[in-house]
Amino acid sequence: MWRFLSTRILMGVLTIWITTILVTLLIHAVPGDPVQIMYAQSQGTTPEQIEEVRRSLGLDRPIPVQYAMFMERLVQGDLGNTIRGGQPVLDVIMQRLPNTLVLACAAMFIAVLIGVPIGFLAAYRKGSLTDITLMIIAIAGISMPHFWLGLVLLFFFAVELGWLPVSGNGWLNLVLPALTLGLSNAAIFARLTRSSMIDVMNQDYVQTALAKGLPRALVLRRHVLRAGLLPVVTMMGLQFAFMMGGAIVVENIFSWNGVGRMAVEAIFQRDYPIIQGFILTFSVVVVLVAITIDALYAVLDPRIRRS
Amino acid sequence: MTALLSVTDLSVVIGSKTLVDKVSFDLASGEVLSIVGESGSGKSMTAKALMGLLPPKVNASGRAMFDGMDLLATGVQPPRGTGIGLIFQEPMTALTPVLTIGLQLTEALVSHGICNAGEAQRRAIAMLDRVGIPSPEDRMRQYPHELSGGMRQRVVIAMMMLLDPRILIADEPTTALDVTVQAQILDLLREIVTDTQIGLILITHDMGVVAEMADNVLVMKSGKAEEFGAVQRIFAAPEADYTTTLLDAVPRIDASTSRKPALTEPLLKVGGINKTFAKRGVIFSKAARHKALDDVSLTIHRGETLALVGESGSGKTTVGRVIARLTEADTGTVTLNDTDLLALSGRELQDKRRAVQMIFQDPYASLDPRHTVGSTIAEPLIIHQNLSKSERSEQVHELLEKVGLSADMAQRYPHEFSGGQRQRIAIARAIAAKPLLVVADEPTSALDVSIQAKVLDLLESLKRSEDLTLLFISHDLAVVRQIADRVAVMRNGRILELGPSAELFANPRHPYTRALIDVAPVPDPTRKRGKRPVLKGDYPTGPLSEIGPGHWVAT
Question: Which B positions 116-145 lie with beta carbon below 8 A of chain A?
Answer without folding.
Answer: 143, 145
